[in-house]
Design goal:
Layout: E1 23-25, H1 28-32, E2 44-55, E3 58-62, E4 77-81, E5 97-107, E6 118-122, E7 130-133, E8 142-143, E9 164-174, E10 178-181, E11 186-189, E12 192-197, E13 209-210, H2 211-214, H3 219-228, E14 234-235, E15 242-245, E16 262-273, E17 276-281, E18 288-289, E19 305-316, H4 332-349, E20 355-361, H5 364-380, E21 388-392, E22 402-408, E23 412-419, E24 425-427, E25 434-436, E26 443-449, E27 458-466, H6 479-503, E28 509-514, H7 527-532, E29 554-555, E30 568-570, E31 573-575, E32 578-582, H8 584-587, E33 590-595, E34 622-627
């Protein structure tokens, strides 16, 4: 699942050619003021400062240390936007004291108007810039500490906007992002990662409505939300996150960093982008990165255990063009690299689970080739042939990604496969058309493992799921349909489980996959609660569901340590999207659960190394261990 916005900052403004404005000399602090938006917004001014950083679309200036005002709540730095060009005027050299005329503007990107604005000076092509002096010492950076984040408000660092800042030691919380080329199975890092000041815990997505969305709604919408869900809680959007653009300043070198490493020496200018305080690192910053992390291998199952996994392969297309779908066709070389990379992950780090529920596979051909590659590589490594076989049924997705299974037939017998709800439809509230409810219909498989001790096979049922993504979830033009579809998909699964359990109370049922839902309510709805049979109270969510499951299920995410509850990282927020949910007859057999840390914490550029398993996807696989005997280690949780 991908829910990210495009990387980089899109600046836009309107230049009125030939207009004549009155202007007055003001300090940077007077422009910035002590509030989020400038009192001089829209006015023509001239200000003076030392150039502290150069960006392709402009530059930053800051008041010299001996000229700052006495108010700590007014920033002494500001961004000067000179236009969409390769670089700002050469006169705006770092260290130059410049006099800069322009119009004060509160900028918000067109793609996201629901965000704090950036106070900047709009100066087309830097016209009117005058150099006052050269080679000035730069203002001393403000040193950030955990104390600067105690208010936990979205505008807590507004007073530092445009200023030089330093983070002596930072913990990386989201790896360096990048641009992925699906067709060549390659990626290019962009130098953007997230961190927190050392001493601040890693931020996680927590229950409730996203406060960053709520703050920018009009009062009528806010009142409607409060009236519909008076007991709603709010997620504060984790304002302690710092977004780092290591290559944003001209001449700066992009850094590649995984999560959970420490970085020393971050120094640069404070900006704001993607709803996050952002630091553009200085080109000459002396950055030190602690030793890189490596993935940890899971243990093999014992003779009385078996394991089941849920794995998002992320755009697992093959090298054959299917004219019926809009897929990305890989080059033969790229597809072989993907097969090799995923095979290594399954064999060496996931310990070859007995059943793997797979999402985002193009077709049965692609999945069968993956099964064959794992088998071949296992034998070549001196391991027993797992004899994985692939199972997939085409669904309704326009790009052709489907749900499927890899089953270790050397041990597991397939009793039945069945696709669920492919023809089910609902009425789109925006268009009135009947749309498919399940773009990627759930795929059920019923299997058995021989158990000589019990004298009969151990049977269980697994359903692979890939529910609607969050794309459009907060977009006023799409959210009515997106939210309804997600709600109905959750209710579809809940009803299926309930009917199944009523028909056979002893059937062992497991739901795996990418549910595109947190383990708690997100303020709008509670998909996982609905599926488990424990929906949130109707006065705590905007779109409530009834309790549709007579005998409740268990989400194994709730059984592991809080610090390990994530399978995906979005904008620096660790979160769970991938779940393994079991019913009571299976709970008696659970031995362990966790996520294989192999993707979400590693830089996008690691896709290029097919000798390493890291970053074959953007999701970490979920793996559960079960005992053929009752009373597993987690059975009583």
């Amino acid at each position: 699942m991908r829910r990210g916005r495009p990387i980089g900052i899109a600046f836009a403004t309107v230049f009125l050619a030939g207009s004549v404005f009155a202007q007055r000399d003001v300090s940077i602090a007077e422009i910035q003021g002590s509030k989020v938006e400038s009192a001089l917004n829209g006015q023509r001014v001239r200000t003076t400062g030392i150039v502290t950083a150069r960006h392709r679309n402009g530059f930053f200036i800051q008041t010299p240390d001996d000229k700052v005002d006495s108010d700590p709540n007014t920033s002494e730095g500001i961004y000067v936007f000179t236009g969409n060009r390769s670089e700002p005027p050469v006169e705006a050299a770092v260290g130059n004291m410049v006099s800069m005329p322009g119009e004060v503007e509160e900028f918000r990107p067109r793609a996201d108007t629901n965000t704090l604005s950036i106070t900047e000076i709009s100066a087309p092509n830097g016209e009117g810039l005058k150099v006052v002096s050269k080679s000035n010492p730069l203002p001393k950076p403000y040193v950030l500490s955990p104390a600067d984040f105690k208010s936990r408000s979205v505008d807590q660092l507004e007073r530092l906007e445009g200023m030089r800042v330093a983070v002596p030691e930072m913990a990386v919380i989201a790896p360096t992002n990048g641009r992925v080329d699906i067709k060549t199975a390659s990626a290019e890092g962009n130098g953007v990662f997230y961190g927190v000041v050392k001493g601040i815990p890693r931020p996680f997505r927590s229950p409730g409505f996203d406060l960053a969305e709520f703050l920018f709604l009009d009062q009528k919408e806010k009142d409607k939300i409060k009236a519909t869900a008076p007991k709603m809680v709010f997620f504060d959007a984790n304002p302690e996150r710092l977004r780092i653009e290591s290559g944003a300043q001209l001449g700066a070198k992009e850094l590649n960093a995984p999560s959970n490493v420490d970085i020393k020496g971050v120094i640069g200018v404070m900006h704001y982008a993607y709803r996050t305080n952002t630091i553009f690192i200085d080109p000459d910053a002396k950055i030190e990165v602690s030793s890189s992390r490596k993935p940890v291998q899971l243990p093999a199952t014992t003779p009385r255990q078996f394991s089941v996994a849920g794995m998002n392969l992320e755009n697992f297309f093959d090298d054959k063009d299917d004219p019926d779908i809009r897929e990305d066709v890989l080059t033969p070389e790229a597809f072989q690299r993907r097969l090799k990379k995923v095979s290594g992950a399954v064999r060496d780090y996931m310990a070859m689970p007995d059943v793997i529920g797979v999402v985002e596979a193009e077709n049965l051909n692609a999945l069968k080739q993956l099964a064959d590659r794992v088998n071949k590589d296992a034998v070549a490594a001196g391991k027993p042939d797992p004899k994985y076989d692939a199972f997939l049924v085409e669904g309704n997705d326009g790009r052709g990604i489907d749900n499927g299974f890899l089953v270790k037939t050397s041990r597991v017998k397939i009793l039945e496969t069945k696709q669920l709800g492919k023809s089910d439809k609902y009425k789109n509230p925006d268009t009135g058309e009947d749309n498919f409810l399940n773009d990627r219909p759930p795929l059920m498989i019923r299997v058995a493992i021989d158990d000589a001790k019990a004298g009969k096979p151990f049977e269980f049922t697994v359903v692979a799921n890939h529910l609607k993504s969050f794309l459009g979830f907060t977009d006023p033009k799409q959210m009515a349909n997106v939210r309804l579809k997600k709600k109905l998909q959750a209710e579809f699964l809940a009803r299926w489980v309930d009917e199944r359990q009523k028909a056979n109370p002893d059937e062992r049922i497991m739901l795996v996959g990418d549910f595109n839902a947190f383990q708690f309510n997100d303020g709008v709805m509670d998909m996982i609660g609905t599926i488990k049979g424990k929906p949130s109270a109707k006065d705590s969510v905007l779109i409530a569901s009834d309790d549709l499951v007579t005998r409740d299920l268990v989400d194994l995410v709730d059984a592991i340590a809080i610090g390990q509850r994530y399978s995906y990282v979005f904008d620096g927020n660790a979160q769970v999207l991938d779940h393994i949910i079991i019913n009571e007859p299976l709970r008696k057999h659970i031995n362990g659960f966790g996520f294989v840390r192999i993707n979400a914490d590693f830089p996008e550029s690691m896709r290029n190394d097919d000798t390493r398993p890291e970053r074959f996807s953007d999701h970490d696989p979920a793996v559960a261990y079960f005992s053929l005997d009752a009373a597993g280690a987690l059975a009583n949780r």
